[in-house]
Write a structure and sequence with these properties.
Shape: globular
Largest sheet: none
Order of helices and strands: HHHHHHHHHHHHHHHHHHHHHH
Number of strands: 0
Number of helices: 22
Distance between the termini: 21 Å
Length: 497
């Protein structure tokens, strides 16, 4: 399906991604400031608090964000009732997360051997509650085609958060509790209030029916369980590193696991946008179009992601030491191992199985996967330290995604080769290596400084992407809405066409 429908989907992806990239870029550049400002012990405590809060968020989100968009697309129920039902579910699950967080303050500090954690974790307890409600309101704005408003609010709040943290670190001595308060309470609450002013729906005007809530929960709970199990491997791994190696090693480990804003946003946005397409096509049992859509999205995403992943691998030492300082040079091997997961981030491996009602199969896969990763992580961490932990996560990810891909192909009555365009992927890798390796050799031969090598990266990526566009492995039409709105965009389009 390389026609209008696919191009429209990718245009939506690009428009939504730009705003989310701006928002995440603020957080991305906020991380090195904290890692340089805080000592390793405090940064480890900060990372542990985020670890607990993010796990609770995944656990209590219950698959809400994955089903919200589909429910709103239905015509048989009032949109206001649906929004109210999701807000009610989000409010209750968020309050449960607060209670769970308060309980964990008395146990995790002993398990992680960090007495400071007990005193500061409670400050972060409302983070999952506010964030769950924010997620619902964000999706509603997207549904109502108010993405600009959403982007503006999120970018402004993140700037507010960064500015407040910078002021606190410059003026205060005991900064960690104040930073956690700003990041986990003040900023998400501010976002929630700003969304509330923009929407006609309010948490205080919830009006829905029990039957609708029950119907939503019937769909969200199985999806939520698969998401929890699917994400649990990372948290199982983090739990092992915390318990076995301690707070300082965890700080080094977590700084090696860097989420690049562009890649993570593109991956998540594609999953959201294509979900309704798969729902419609599978309902019509149009498996041929599902296969075409999967093949197209995987090929296009890989052509965007793989060059960046290869650049990150080859320039990992320069990037990490510049980004986080030499204080975290031990994070470089972790970063290299973990970055290889990016080669998998070209599609959502759950969407088709969930849409076809195969949640029970997903649950079985993820339970086995979780138990395997927990054992492997403990074993590899004991013998090989943080590198072993990174390898356990990466190897397990490849294993589970292989089984999911094979199951998806089987349900669609297709082979893996029909879903994955190997020619496009191999060409993307080859052209990337042909451009990157000479750059590496030039840097080594002339003994270039770190900044000189980093300056090479944009030029390397430009050459790679121009080659991919000229070779028709990247469809230029998907960029047209962006090129039409930026200075010299049409000229760029003419040159590349």
């Amino acid at each position: 399906m390389t026609g209008t429908a696919n191009n429209n989907n990718f245009q939506k992806v690009l428009i939504l991604s730009i705003g989310q990239i701006l928002e995440k870029a603020i957080v991305f550049f906020f991380k090195p400031y904290l890692s340089r400002t805080l000592n390793i012990q405090d940064y480890g405590s900060y990372s542990q608090v985020l670890f607990v809060g993010d796990f609770l968020l995944i656990f209590f989100t219950l698959g809400i964000t994955q089903t919200f968009y589909v429910f709103l697309a239905k015509d048989n129920t009032s949109k206001k009732e649906i929004v109210s039902a999701f807000l009610l579910i989000g409010l209750v699950s968020g309050l449960l997360s607060v209670a769970c967080n308060l309980f964990l303050t008395f146990t995790l500090s002993d398990i992680f051997n960090n007495p400071q954690l007990r005193n500061i974790l409670w400050i972060y307890c409302c983070y999952p509650l506010f964030t769950i409600l924010n997620l619902i309101l964000q999706l509603l704005l997207l549904f109502n085609n108010k993405s600009r408003k959403l982007v503006m609010i999120n970018v402004l709040v993140n700037l507010f958060k960064v500015i407040c943290v910078v002021i606190v670190t410059q003026l205060s001595q005991n900064t960690l509790p104040k930073i956690i308060f700003i990041v986990g309470f003040a900023a998400p609450l501010c976002t929630l209030l700003l969304y509330g002013r923009q929407l006609s729906y309010s948490v205080f005007k919830i009006k829905t029916s029990y039957s609708l809530v029950k119907s939503i929960l019937k769909d969200t709970l199985p999806v939520g369980l698969t998401i929890v199990m699917g994400g649990a491997y990372f948290y199982a791994n983090g739990f092992v590193v915390n318990a076995v190696l301690g707070i300082e090693k965890y700080a080094v480990f977590v700084n090696g696991i860097i989420d690049i804003p562009f890649i993570s946003t593109l991956y998540a946005t594609i999953a959201t946008i294509t979900l309704t397409n798969y729902t419609t096509l599978i309902k019509e049992k149009n498996f041929i179009e599902v296969i075409k859509l999967k093949r197209y999205t995987i090929a296009q995403t890989a052509s965007l992601v793989y060059p960046i992943a290869l650049v990150l691998l080859f320039f990992s030492h320069e990037l990490i030491t510049t980004y986080l300082s030499n204080k975290y040079i031990a994070s470089v091997p972790v970063f290299m191992v973990y970055t290889s997961i990016l080669f998998l981030r070209v599609t959502d491996y759950n969407d088709v199985l969930i849409t076809m009602g195969k949640q029970s199969l997903l649950v079985k896969y993820y339970i086995v996967f979780f138990l395997t990763i927990f054992f492997n992580s403990w074993l590899f961490t004991k013998f090989f330290g943080i590198i072993g932990s990174a390898f356990a996560v990466t190897a397990s990810s490849y294993l589970i995604y292989f089984f999911l891909l094979r199951s998806m192909a089987s349900l669609l009555k297709a082979s893996v080769s029909e879903i994955i365009n190997w020619r496009s992927i191999i060409y993307t890798i080859l052209i990337s290596l042909i451009v990157i390796i000479p750059g590496i050799l030039i840097g080594h031969f002339f003994a270039l400084r770190v900044w000189s090598k980093l300056i090479m990266i944009p030029f390397i990526l430009i050459i790679i992407y121009v080659s991919l566009v000229k070779s028709k492995f990247i469809s230029l039409t998907m960029y047209k809405p962006i090129l039409d709105k930026i200075p010299f965009g049409k000229n760029i389009e003419t040159i590349l066409s």
